[in-house]
Design brief:
Elements lengths: L2 E10 L2 E11 L3 E7 L5 H8 L7 E6 L2 E2 L5 H6 L2 E4 L11 H5 L16 H15 L14 H13 L5 E5 L7 H16 L3 E5 L3 H7 L2 E6 L2 E7 L5 H9 L22 E10 L3 E9 L3 E5 L6 H8 L5 E8 L2 E2 L5 H6 L2 E4 L3 H5 L6 H6 L5 E2 L2 E2 L1 H15 L15 H14 L4 E5 L7 H16 L3 E5 L3 H7 L2 E6 L2 E6 L7 H8 L1
Parallel strand pairs: 3-8, 3-9, 6-7, 7-8, 13-20, 13-21, 16-19, 19-20
Antiparallel strand pairs: 1-2, 1-4, 4-5, 9-10, 11-12, 11-14, 14-15, 17-18, 21-22
Helix pairs in contact: 4-5, 13-14
This protein binds adenosine-5'-triphosphate (ATP).
Keywords: ATP-binding, Nucleotide-binding, Repeat, Sugar transport, Transport
InterPro entries: AAA+_ATPase, ABC_carbohydrate_import_ATPase, ABC_transporter-like_ATP-bd, ABC_transporter-like_CS, P-loop_NTPase
Protein name: Ribose transport system ATP-binding protein
Length: about 500
């Protein structure tokens, strides 16, 4: 099915999120949409998928006018959209989540849902996607990437002709990314029309036939994917040359006394995943953690951040025994945690940018909230991290996904922590903004902050971490004492 969208526009108040953008999505082809955070990618996809009403422009499907009033109408016309944020309902089963809009189609003559049939159908879709998820698994125990796969399966359950994926790979580890990219290739050969948003040009180059670049709501060109070089894409997206690399220079290794130890874990076991890990982090150090989902990094962060009680082993912070009873206790002892899922854990979306930035440690004058000090902290962070927002009082619901991520980072820095736990800090963040964030992280380390960085992005670990630990099955499988000359495959080799 061919989806033609001409001169699409959408404003939010005075923000022209999408301004006169045209795209043509063709059957049997994958069309990537790339651009900086806030460039209008999600808004464009949402209009195509019926989740946002266009202010201007026209669309057609195989030549027939198409102006969906909602996602249900789009779906009935054969267009399915996977949203950027996680929308899985944790109180439902995996199969119910996949068929959430069509539960009734599994109802028998007496109105009971034929659960077995629904489960089999759900499993068939997951298998088609190539991901190893069993429908009988407990949904609460799945990780973010697996939830994302359930959402993609939900989109496929309607047998769409057009599939729109908004940053669906951002939550996946590299094995899941491979599965989803392979599924996209397969769907393409079956004649599906596919559009997807990604900040990873390697993915774009791996599967896309065409790509459209958005810049500040405008179309900045549509190209055949094999006809444009990554540097040129970056230049058009960001408006500057990034070929010099996006990682800040590493400081020379200090000679003389080693900086003080900030954090030590000895044989720490916690939850389901963490089997016994020892590590230490010194002031000014960035220690990287690599590993597949469930390999232990999330469990380790949960233990350090006070989200999960330690089953065995000990932790020390600044030389003192450290066993936070809950996340509040960890924050107040100077441990800031940037969670992997900003939607569920990091932000209160209805609150303003200011409120979210200072939430973890609101400045006070006596017993009262000091709004003037809070505004000054918020303004400083907005400028330093480059948060694109109409004002510090705008609600976080008005920010694009990548800018939300920057707010979570700002929130962590605002507390002046001594240990910072970063879980995929640049998930969904565009390359230009990533560069800014890396600069801030490096600068904070230079000021003495101890940082543990867990990431699914191998180049990020190599580019930023001073040392790297590879986790496998809850334990440290390998340590690299330097990362400057590491190749991705050397890390991956220890992960599986
Ligand atoms: N509901 C909303 N209310 C107000 N402004 C909004 C709303 N949704 C989006 N915007 C604004 O529209 C612009 C485009 O946002 P959009 O989410 O489409 O960007 P994006 O390219 O998908 O970014 P990202 O890569 O960060 O996800 C941004 O300036 C954003 O702040």
């Amino acid at each position: 099915m061919t989806l033609v969208a001409s001169h699409m526009s959408k404003s939010f108040g005075r923000t022209r999120a999408v301004d006169g953008v045209s795209v043509t999505l063709s059957p049997g082809a994958v069309h990537a949409v790339v651009g900086e955070n806030g460039a209008g990618k999600s808004t464009l996809l949402r209009m195509l998928g019926g989740a946002a009403r266009a202010d201007g422009g026209t669309m057609s499907l195989d030549g027939v006018a198409y102006a969906p009033a909602g996602t249900a109408e789009a779906s009935a016309r054969g267009v399915a959209l996977v949203f950027q944020e996680i929308t899985v309902n944790r109180s439902l089963t995996i199969a119910e989540n996949i068929f959430i809009d069509r539960l009734r189609s599994f109802a028998g003559p007496l109105g009971f849902i034929a659960r077995r049939r629904m489960r089999d159908a759900a499993q068939a879709i997951l298998d088609r996607l190539g991901v190893r998820i069993s429908v009988s698994a407990d949904i609460e125990r799945l990780n973010l990437g697996e939830w994302k796969c359930i959402e993609i399966a939900r989109a496929l359950s309607t047998s769409p002709k057009v599939l729109l994926l908004d940053e669906s790979t951002a939550y996946l580890d590299h094995i899941e990314v491979e599965s989803v990219l392979a599924a996209m290739r397969q769907l393409k050969t079956e004649g599906m029309t596919i559009a997807f948003v990604s900040h990873h040009l390697d993915e774009v180059r791996a599967v896309a036939d065409e790509l459209t670049i958005l810049k500040d709501g405008h179309g900045a060109g549509t190209f055949r994917a094999d006809e444009i070089e990554p540097d040129e894409i970056h230049r058009r997206m960001v408006g500057r040359d990034l070929s010099q690399g996006i990682y800040p220079e590493r400081p020379a290794r200090a000679t003389g006394d080693a900086p003080p130890l900030v954090f030590e874990a000895t044989d720490v076991a916690a939850g389901r995943d963490l089997g016994g890990v020892s590590l230490d982090v010194r002031a000014g150090e960035i220690v990287g953690l690599a590993g597949l989902k469930g390999a232990g990094a999330d469990g380790l962060f949960a233990a350090i951040a006070g989200d999960q009680q330690v089953r065995r082993g000990t932790m020390r912070l600044g030389g003192n025994a450290y066993a936070p009873a809950d996340p509040g206790a960890a924050w107040s002892l100077g441990v800031a945690h940037l969670p992997g899922d900003r939607g569920n854990e990091g932000l209160i979306a209805d609150f303003s940018v200011l409120d979210n930035l200072v939430m973890a440690r609101p400045p006070r004058r006596g017993p009262l909230f000091n709004r003037r000090a809070a505004a000054s902290i918020a303004r400083d962070l907005v400028a330093r991290i480059g948060i694109k927002t109409a004002s510090i009082d705008a609600p976080c619901t008005s920010l694009s996904g990548g800018n939300l991520q920057k707010v979570v980072i700002g929130k962590c820095l605002a507390t002046g922590p001594r240990l910072l736990l970063l879980n995929n800090p640049t998930r969904g963040v565009d390359v230009g903004a990533r560069m800014e964030i890396y600069r801030v992280i490096r600068q904070k380390a230079a000021e003495g902050l101890a940082i543990i960085l867990s990431s699914e992005d191998m180049p990020e670990l190599i580019g930023l971490a001073d040392r790297l630990l590879v986790l496998r099955q809850g334990r440290i499988a390998h340590s690299f004492n330097a990362t400057a000359d590491l190749a991705e495959h050397e890390i991956v080799r220890h992960m599986t």
